[in-house]
Amino acid sequence: MEIPKLKIGNLTADIPIVQGGMGVRVSLSSLASAVANQGGIGTISSIGLGDVKDSEHNYESQSRDALVKEIRKAKTMTDGHLAVNFMGVLSNVDDLIKASVNEGIKTIVYGAGIPVKLPAIVPDPDINLVPIVSSARLVPLILKAWDKRYSRTADAFILEGPLAGGHLGFSEEQLEHPDDYSLEKLLPEVLEAIKPYEDTYGRKIPVIVAGGIYDGADIARMLSLGASGVQMATRFVCTHECDVSPEFKQAYLDAKKEDIVITKSPVGLPGRVINNAFLQKLEKEGKLRIKCPYHCLTACKVETARYCIALALVNSYFGDVENGLIFTGQYSYRINKIVSVKELMDELIAGIEAA
Ligand SMILES: Cc1cc2nc3c(=O)[nH]c(=O)nc-3n(C[C@H](O)[C@H](O)[C@H](O)COP(=O)(O)O)c2cc1C
């Protein structure tokens, strides 16, 4: 099979693989630039950056400055395609988006929220706006609002299914029956929902699928079903270039199938994690003590939150996995070694070709 390129607006990636944004420092300049150098799209996550201590006094400028630093660093390491990932539930999301655009980022990926006003924050039509959805339901809602208010349409969608890592756009009940919401079922519905807008704007709106894509055969299957590309995250964690601690990566290597579980996050969404000492402590104690100087998430209520998710994820990033939360996609238990991004990309490309 000849591998199709991935076109998003004015951008063309040689390889239709997007490395998904991974919050709280998992995907920063090192990983994103390595993926971009291999012809994919590398995504820096804007979430949970900044010096933890200093952020107590000035969270907004700390996280903005740290993001700008990562973007600038990535740009010194690659001329390839870089995206930045944002979550709608971030209290400073608009500020971070504007800072990224100022730094020349051309692709804005927006999840965990409905980006109805995104074109007002990014009016430049040459900057790609890519919402993340978990079903076809939000597609007309977003596209109708953008068409009516801004005469604009999406440049691509990421369709994230129930096997993905991190926060998930499904209820806990739905996650007990992932086959009912498989990408194979959801993709045709999303393709159908975008069709009228493709006709109106006279251009293709590519759909990139995410969640449980593990190898080249998975990618080839998704492309044959009408996806224009895939977004992968879990496999990129176990690369030398991934920005997290060796302990975080080791937790992936050690994980067994039964260790991959769903937990309720203070964001108000279920999230997929590795069952570890931190999670067990949380189960036992019900609620951990929280001191919150940041208010980083609009959806997090400090009085009722069971723990500080930012701190729990930062702990894992630094290697204190005993006191940290480890987000993962469903298939980390299949990974058994750490490789370079080039080795992983070569393996995936060979797998697509073989399929
Ligand atoms: C450690 C980790 C952190 C993640 N953090 C985010 C995030 O902050 N924002 C987001 O939109 N998606 C996040 N995701 C989801 C990924 O970007 C991606 O869409 C998904 O995990 C793809 O499925 P896969 O991990 O099975 O390849 C995260 C995934 C992982 C594994």
In short:
The chain is an alpha/beta fold.
Q: Which stretches are low in confidence, meaning pLDDT under 50 for 5 or more residues running?
A: none
Strand content: 15-25%
Radius of gyration: 19 Å
Q: Any ligands, ions or cofactors bound here, and which?
A: flavin mononucleotide
Span between N and C termini?
7 Å
Major sheet size, sense and barrel closure:
8 strands, parallel, barrel
Helix segment count?
Answer: 13
Global mean pLDDT:
95
Overall 3D form: globular
Question: What is CATH's topology name of the largest domain?
Answer: TIM Barrel
CATH class of the largest domain: Alpha Beta
Arrangement of strands in the largest sheet: 3-4-5-6-7-8-10-11
Number of extended strands: 13
Summarize the structure in words:
The chain is of the alpha/beta class. 37% of the residues lie in helices and 16% in strands. It is built from 13 helices and 13 strands. A hairpin with a 5-residue loop joins strand 12 (260-264) and strand 13 (270-274). The model has no long low-confidence stretch (mean pLDDT 95). The chain is globular and about 55 Å long. The chain binds flavin mononucleotide (FMN). Flavin mononucleotide (FMN) binds next to strand 5 and strand 11. Residues 20-23, 26, 45, 47, 85, 87, 111, 132, 160, 163-166, 210-213, 231-234, 327-329, 331 line the site of flavin mononucleotide.
